[in-house]
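User: I would dearly like some help making sense of a protein record. This is the protein in question:
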Amino acid sequence: MNYQVETAKNGEATLLLNNIYIYSKYNPKDDASKFIKKEYDESAKGYFLVGLGLGYHLEALLELDKGKPIIVLALDHKELKICPFISQMEQYKNVNIIIRIESNVDLSQYKVIIPNPWMKAIGHEHRLHDVLEDIKIRQMSYVALATELEKNFQANSKNNDHSISKFSNTFQGKSACLVSAGPSLDDTIKLLKETKGKSFILAVGSSLNTLLRNDIEPNAVIITDTQINVVNQLENKGYKGLLFYLATANHEMTRVHKGQKVIIYQEGYLLSENEAKARNEDVLETGGSVATTAFSLLEYMGFQKVILFGQDLGFKDYNTHSISSSSGNKVINGISFRRVLANNGEYIHTTANLSAYLRWFERKVNETSVELYNTSWEGAKIKGIPYLDAASLKNKLVF
């Protein structure tokens, strides 16, 4: 990590890290203060600030809130030496400067502040990049959708649908297929058809169209998206089976479905957690995507084996979904891609969001007793989840 303290145009010190300016090279303190004012949330229990640097963001935060706890994550020991604000730390008993973040740290009621220049400057190889990116993605998603989340939650709470507790451990020792809408679903759809009656098929909403076109009616569908376009995943499809939906999923979609509906209260969303507590219901870890939520549900239901279909977490030739999926499209040119190793040994494209979901599965497989298998040959290799070919599949099914 190459730190360089330079003099800005207004005479103040500014900081360059790995050739990226952490602060403005014109008015560093003023710009840091403006950023913090935009990020500030007086309703937060406390603040988690990434990057100590020269202390400008921390100073600005303390000017707004001197009482609540503030955790500052310094990304390198060098920051403790270059930050002139360190000498004033003794007077702020609510400030805790750390140099590593524990995996079990609870930031659910903290306002997380991650200035973008820090993420750019540390790069993908830094030991903290992945965990910070996961936090940043969750935060950006929440901020962008906060209004829709609450609107959907309030509407769905009036549905009086059953919650997931009636399904707790009801399928112990059985196997399930978790069907997503990645491009590989087109290659494995015939294989999936052979599992009918031999496993429980849980389909994410975007894969339902592909399944129905191939005469496969899933045992259940799961939808978690807040946006109105998920109505298309069910409308006029003829599916009247079991639907699991997140408490914050689009409320128009839940109105459209005519079959049995089961609401899922998610962990980490305060309104949902409070409602679950009031109803004496369980909450689920969501992981940020419909597929990660679906796996949490299958785990909760007690399945011993889960086989992933269409869970590519990447894409070859810019095809992001199954051709007949309700989300079928191609990636728009200009998006910044990454490369990830596929099960076939080649490299495919991926994105920040998909990388976060891949990391979630890699963490989860080390924590769960469920056996996980992946059928996506050209999809991303998920450490700890072996590839399963057609010949081996029949030996994994118990239903």
Summary: The chain is about 30% helix and 20% strand. The longest strand covers residues 261-266. Residues 161-396 form a domain with the sialyltransferase cstii, chain A fold (CATH 3.90.1480). The chain has two domains: 3-127, 161-396.
